[in-house]
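Q: A reviewer asked whether we had any structural model of the full assembly, not just the individual parts. We don't, so I'm hoping you can provide one. Inputs are below.
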Amino acid sequence: MRSVTKDNITEVFMGYLSDDTDPRMREIMGSLVKHLHGFAKEVGLTHEEWRAGIAFMEGCAGIESEDRHEFVLGSDVLGLSSVLGPFHVSGAPPLEVGGDMKRHYGGPILLAEGVIKSTDGTPIAGAEIDIWQTAPNGLYASQDEEQDTYSFHGLMTVGDDGRYAFTTVKPVEYTVPSDGPVGDILRACGRHPRRPSHLHYIVTAPGFKPLVTEVFPDDDPYLDQDTVFGVRNDLVMHYDERPAEAFPEGMALSGKVNEPFLHVAFDVTLAPED
Amino acid sequence: MRSVTKDNITEVFMGYLSDDTDPRMREIMGSLVKHLHGFAKEVGLTHEEWRAGIAFMEGCAGIESEDRHEFVLGSDVLGLSSVLGPFHVSGAPPLEVGGDMKRHYGGPILLAEGVIKSTDGTPIAGAEIDIWQTAPNGLYASQDEEQDTYSFHGLMTVGDDGRYAFTTVKPVEYTVPSDGPVGDILRACGRHPRRPSHLHYIVTAPGFKPLVTEVFPDDDPYLDQDTVFGVRNDLVMHYDERPAEAFPEGMALSGKVNEPFLHVAFDVTLAPED
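A: Here is a predicted structure for the entire assembly that you could use as a starting point for your response.
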């Protein structure tokens, strides 16, 4: 097509795709450019605004590193990641059932436990639960030079009863990094960079669809305004306080808890693969 | 909003904007996320595809530099820049009316000329025309260590008759950089990275809206498939061949042309400012 205009650009773009383009690639690119052109036309995007958009990308590029994923953060605060569901950080060390993830860190002790089961209620023996959270300073290990690489990360394999259990410290709310271009966007929108506190779980078992989820305490002040849009009602749980003497046997910390602790029960249901 | 789902994410996003958010920012972000979420939902974007998108951004980031603008190129080949119009590269050295831009470079001599006028046909005295093109090797000065910084760039101020004129070599078709993530996209779509040959003009005058345009020769094989979607019918001109003895007086090369040369006439009309 010779004369490309605002009105035919999307059609012309599709005409440029070769006949043997992968059908899924064609579907994705077609929808992408339709929405991209639609956005620019709908708002009458100016050169100056386009330049600001390019400058945003280049600003993200300038700070992108192994420990700073500004493009992922941009996807998060724009709610794109939330459309897909949260994402996994891999590489946790093994944690036995009943193990302790808090190690030497202080803060309110939390005992989290539950059963990993199939949609029919049967416990799934051998399911794996990958657990991670921020340290009490609000930073993930990958963001914090003071922590070991996998601090507050654990990978647990459950037994025949499907039960997982571990101790940690109560997660804290934290701020996503806001000193980069994504932070500029948040400020321009009058938005804060805070997330409510949560535990991350990714649960897998052979023959079942993996589940990536988060568990939020019901007393967090940011539940209704998670800056990355991760909260669902069925992920908000009550953390009840129990006296030290109610701390159960069979845990790594059994006999070592001398203060009230928090308890949360959260069962995980996996759907069978198609 | 607590329970964010695929169905309410766009609405929740808008609810997070503060009341005093700049109205244009609100308009742009609202349209942007509507289309972003719409895209992801329409194609049912998977985690793996999202990761490929993030990897694309990070790949662009990895090669972005002062001389390699991969995000701009991405905007170009997706047709976004074309929705807005082409963009200017600033910093050209002065070129007198009738001057020569080809200097020591070989190749078919092209004499380009025309009148810069207002919509009522009056020549605009003192208008400026900023001219640039690739060298005969298909590279812009900014892409080519062999060229001076402003090789094949010139900034001309026209006299009372509004006439511009200069000699150069006939531009060649060229390829946009295709060794980066944008090149990967082109290949995945079965697209070539070629642009038809053209001269770039940006024309400005006090009291008139600036005009950024390109002039294409009508014999270029890539007119119907410009990989950055820049061609418009009214920018495609015939370059006619004239004998050496027809070369006019008053040009820097007058008396020095011993072979047939090409000639293109292209008047530029500027619209008054509002």
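A: Points you may want to mention in the reply: Chain A has a mean pLDDT of 90. Chain A touches chain B through 77 residues (CB under 8 Å).
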